[in-house]
Amino acid sequence: MAFVSTGYDPKEPMKDRITDIGPRKYDEFYPPVIAKNKGKWLYHEVLEPGVLVHVAESGDEVYTVRCGGARLMSVTHIREICEIADKHCDGYLRFTTRNNIEFMVDSKDKVKPLVDDLESRKFDGGSYKFPVGGTGTSITNIVHTQGWIHCHTPATDASGPVKATMDVLFDYFKSHKMPAKLRVSLACCLNMCGAVHCSDIAILGYHRKPPILDHEYLDKMCEIPLAIAACPTAAIKPAKVEFEGQKLNSVAVKNERCMFCGNCYTMCPSMPLSDQEGDGIVLMVGGKVSNRISAPKFSKVVVAFIPNEPPRWPKTTEAIKNMVEKYEANANKYERLGEWAERIGWERFFDICGLEFTHHLIDDFRDPAYYTWRQTTQFKF
């Protein structure tokens, strides 16, 4: 019997070892000028909306052109991005955490041809494929979750409201006229994989009804113990139900305990949560991650519910645009939206923005850790 080598020698475990499983090491993709000057940058400036320069101790410069991207991209769109990078940047580019695309060049004379090329590329409908902007005191790309196109528990879409919102805020993407940077995010349900709880303006999909129970198929399609165990609030219990003269194994839901998270539907497709009337959008404002000027903040609910209105979500976009315009007109320089609201008082914020205050907006959550845990790197004496 022939011996087949597996490539592993216990006497020399590192010999011929495969090490390229998973992504390649990030520093292999640095542009040469960045690899040369890593850790030796003196300063950076924002030259105009969408254009930055970083200057190193050696005198080398890197010019970055930022343009809006998309979370969901077609292969042809990605190929076009690669073509632009090959044409202007020796093939180098990077994506930001907010789905912007950044093209980097090593001299100023390469910036204008790159910007002109990006701005000239448009979709058949006339909108920009690669709008340049999103730096400094602007609204940059909206981070969002999956929405109706991929996720199974969304209360609203992601790409649809984001596109509609960015259309009404596009001038703020292309300019530096805001008091400070403003970050908008969307999560399509309360599970919040979009981290909207710490954004200046947050669009949150919200379910208002407990799951529907399809008793006929529940025991056939679901592991009932798993569906019960998946509920974080113990709102589900096993139950026997009558269906067409038969007693079936199923579950019962204690509605007042349900937090509409959709965990049960994740485990059991016979417990769908989506509902045309019950699903919609909640708007939150005032969150931030930054430690600058004040400590990080959580967002607060300011609009309790707006129904889903595809394809353009007019009430949602109107409310967001109104808040942004009032913030632009009234906030001090460098003041984030939440800092402005706290300075003038939340009552005044609701008044200025024309928002209705209801009992649904009262924040009565009190966690002892909220007052004892260190939540910021800021030191106070």
Give a quick precis of the structure:
This protein is an alpha+beta fold and 381 residues long.
Overview features:
single chain; 381 residues; alpha+beta; five-stranded mixed beta sheet; 12 strands; 27% helix; 19% strand; globular
Radius of gyration: 26 Å
User: Strand fraction band?
Assistant: 15-25%
Structural class: alpha+beta
Describe the main β-sheet briefly.
5 strands, antiparallel
| Strand line-up of the largest beta sheet | 1-2-3-5-4
Q: Poorly predicted ranges (pLDDT <50, ≥5 residues)?
A: none
Query: Could you say which overall geometry the principal axes of the C-alpha atoms support?
Result: globular
Distance from first to last alpha carbon: 77 Å
What's the tally of helices?
Answer: 12
What is the β-strand count? 12
- Average per-residue pLDDT, rounded, comes to 91
Helix proportion range: 25-40%
| Order of SSEs | HEEEHEEHEHHEEHHEEHEEHHHH
Report on the architecture of this protein.
The protein is α+β, with helices and mostly antiparallel strands and 381 residues long. The chain has helices spanning 32-37, 75-88, 111-120, 159-168, 170-173, 215-221, 224-230, 263-267, 314-330, 337-344, 346-353, 368-372, and strands spanning 41-48, 51-56, 61-68, 93-95, 100-105, 143-144, 184-187, 201-206, 236-243, 246-253, 280-285, 300-307. It has a five-stranded antiparallel beta sheet with strand order 1-2-3-5-4. The protein has a five-stranded mixed beta sheet with strand order 6-7-8-11-12, with helices on one face. Strands 9-10 form a two-stranded antiparallel sheet.
